[in-house]
Amino acid sequence: MEINIFQKSLAPKEEKVFNDYLEKKTPGIKALLSKFAHDAVLLKVTVEKFEKHDAFEVELCLMLPTKSLVAKEASHQITKALDLSKDRLVAQLKKHMDSLRGERSHKGIKQEITSEVAIEMEIPQD
User: Fold this and answer.
1) pLDDT, tens digit, for every residue of 4-32?
2) Which of 56, 44, 76, 43 is nearest to 9 (CA)?
3) Cβ neighbour number for residue 90 with a 10 Å cutoff
4) Mean pLDDT within 102-124
5) How does strand 55-63 pair with strand 42-50?
6) What is the pTM of this model?
7) DSSP assignment, residue 9?
8) In degrees, to the nearest 5, what angle opens at C-alpha 85 toward C-alphas 95 and 98?
9) Which pLDDT does position 38 carry in this prediction?
10) Whose CA is closest to 60, among 38, 37, 28, 34?
11) What does the pLDDT average to over 93-118?
12) Which among 57, 60, 82, 122 is least buried, having the fewest CB atoms inside 10 angstroms?
C-alpha cells in the first residue's frame, strides 16, 4: 500500500506527531487489504489545521481497484481526528469486502432461511 500525505497549516512538531501516529495506525488497514495487490492500493491522507477553531481535519481516501472509500473527521486533537477517520474507513472497508464476497446481500440471507425451513419440513416426526 502506497501512502501519500498532504499537510496544510501544520507546525513541524504537529507534523512529526501526526506522521508517527499514522505509522502506528496503518497496519490495521493493511491487514484488511490482503486480497489486493500491494501496488494496487493507494491511501491519500490529508490533514489540515484550522487556526481560528484550533481544530484539525483528517481525511483518508483509500483508492482500491474496485472502489474508492473516503472518511473525513474533525477534532481538536490531531490523534483523535486520525482515530475517528481511521475507524470510519475500516468500517467502510469491511462492508466493501463483505459485499465483494457476497455476504451482505439480502438475497443470500433469504435463501439461507428458506433452505433451513425446507430442511425442517422434511424431517418426519414420530
Assistant:
1) 999 999 999 999 999 999 999 999 999 99
2) 56
3) 19
4) 60
5) antiparallel
6) 0.79
7) S
8) 10
9) 87
10) 28
11) 70
12) 122
Could you tell me the three cell numbers for 60? 483518508
Q: Report residue 93 as a C-alpha cell.
A: 472497508
Name residues whose C-beta falls within 8 Å of residue 39's C-beta, 6 or more positions apart in sequence.
2
> pLDDT by residue (tens digit) across 29-54?
999 998 898 899 999 999 999 999 99
Query: CA 61 to CA 44: how far, in whole Å?
Result: 5
Name 75's bridge partners.
56
How far is residue 97's CA from residue 54's CA, in Å, rounded to a whole number? 36
Domains of the chain, each with CATH number or no CATH: 2-122 (3.30.160.100)
The single residue listed with the C-alpha cell 416426526 is: 125
Calculate the dihedral angle through the C-alpha atoms of 70, 76, 77, 83, rounding to the nearest 10 degrees. Answer: -30
pLDDT at residue 119 greater than cutoff 90: no
